[in-house]
Fold:
Amino acid sequence: KMALVDFVFQLGFNRARNGFPKFVHNINTGKWEAAAAELKYVDGKKQDKLSDYWKETKGRAMEIVRMIEEG
Structure:
């Protein structure tokens, strides 16, 4: 829950919900690893291409992804 609060606080409710629909869907369906991957990688695919969110807010993004992955 703290990861989601931090994420929404950082981006604002509408941007978090509308800008990351796959992330929101994965959270709502309990697919935590897929949700974390959506924040880190372009199109949620684990490859070399990091998302703009990850690159622009790396420290905070790392913490949010860690919290999601660890539960």
About this structure: The CA atoms of residues 25 and 54 lie 19 Å apart.
